[in-house]
Amino acid sequence: MPLVRISLCRGKPLPYLDSLADGIHQAMVEAFDVPPDDRFQTIHQLATDKLRYDPHYLGGPRSADFVLVEITAGRPRSTATKAAFYRCLAARLQASPGLRPADLMVVITTTERDEWSFGHGLATLLQPANS
Amino acid sequence: MPLVRISLCRGKPLPYLDSLADGIHQAMVEAFDVPPDDRFQTIHQLATDKLRYDPHYLGGPRSADFVLVEITAGRPRSTATKAAFYRCLAARLQASPGLRPADLMVVITTTERDEWSFGHGLATLLQPANS
Amino acid sequence: MPLVRISLCRGKPLPYLDSLADGIHQAMVEAFDVPPDDRFQTIHQLATDKLRYDPHYLGGPRSADFVLVEITAGRPRSTATKAAFYRCLAARLQASPGLRPADLMVVITTTERDEWSFGHGLATLLQPANS
Fold first, then answer.
1. Contact C52 B43 (CB under 8 A)
2. ipTM of the complex
3. For the residues B65-84, what does the mean pLDDT come to?
């Protein structure tokens, strides 16, 4: 049920974006306890002067390839799960599309189960079939 | 006080967007305990390859008309209120602009009252007049 | 560690955006307990009909210069800190780029420390050096 917002600078071709979005989803399935068909992503390519980030704060060095992944999650995960997910995500994106782990930033926001409707006017995650 | 982010694929004319944004606001007034003049919305039209969603996960079938409504709320609502809001919203948008309920997804994030400033450098919701 | 999303209507030149983004960051350093090199911002310029806001609700009058600042914070701040930050931010942006305090809206969302990875696949804020 997570919602994923991917922000990066303009200039990457569609195959790069495909690989990035696919890799993020695969890492979520592998390490963030997300079902394979639970995929909802938006991709935002910003002009260089619209995405501003310090090159070195608590990591880096960050380059023009910097990617910001914002995840809205529908239930809490343990610290161990989150830590394993960060590792898995960095490794997957380094393999494809070749993102340097220094250029990957992730921020998770956690909500409640009754804060999601997947359609049909239902509080989907409160239905018995999904509890 | 909610802030509403509306995301959908490009290609809808302005009257459709007007009807969509108006209907979302009206449902919030009717069922989410929001004053009529408490309206703050952003609309984001994305290229098809920038808005990725599974057509069937926990609902659907989702079409190219898929609309994602992200709400940042300034205080908690009960589960019953949220469930009634989802029903109301789906019904209103089905009536106008004719959005299929299967194509509507809603995600709510809840914040604290001191996390909002509506202007003038004030923590607005802590002022006696708004408490 | 905050992440800052800045939304406003199209039409402002780059020096205005620079001043706005710089002023927001300086206010966070001065009054929100943020290190000087902890800067991560996205800027979103929207067509007038894509940024909808009531001109008077709990403040205003809001003009076409309206600016919405959404902050995702990595740890809680006290109400006093938030209130001082709103004041500082309004004063700084009024000085430069000349934003009227009535046109400034701020919304903060608070997350947990283990919900941030600043790179290298690490849960950065859990590392001893950053605790």
1. yes
2. 0.96
3. 98
Residue of chain A with shortest Cα separation from B9:
A42
Owner of token pair 């290190």: C35
Of C83, C104, C109, the CB nearest to B72: C109
Query: Is residue B13 annotated as a catalytic residue, yes or no?
Result: no
Contacts of A22 (CB under 8 A, 6+ apart): none
For residue C7, report the phi and psi dihedrals to the nearest 5 degrees: -120, 135
- Residuewise pLDDT in 10s, chain C (131 residues): 799 999 999 999 999 999 999 999 999 999 999 999 999 999 999 999 999 999 999 999 999 999 999 999 999 999 999 999 999 999 999 999 999 999 999 999 999 999 999 999 999 999 766 54
Among C50, C57, C109, the residue with its CB nearest the CB of B37 is C57
Q: Which of A1, A111, A123 lies at the smallest CB-CB distance from B86? A: A123
In A, minimum Cα distance to B87 occurs at A121
Compare all CA atoms of chain C with the CA of A8 and give the residue at the minimum distance.
C42
**Model-level pTM greater than 0.95?**
yes
Q: Residue C28: its chain B contacts at CB < 8 A?
A: none
CB contact under 8 A, B40 and C54: yes
CB of A9 closer than 8 Å to CB of A47: yes
Q: What are phi and psi of C103, to 5 degrees?
A: -95, 10
Domains of chain B, by residue range, sit at 3-130
> A114-125: buried (b, 16+ CB within 10 Å) or exposed (e) per residue?
bbbbbbbbbbbb
Q: What is the largest CA-CA distance in chain C?
A: 47
Using CA atoms of C4, C5, C10, C12 in order, give the dihedral in degrees to the nearest 10.
0
Q: Which CATH number fits domain B3-130: 3.40.640.10, 3.30.565.10, 3.30.429.10, 3.10.150.10?
A: 3.30.429.10
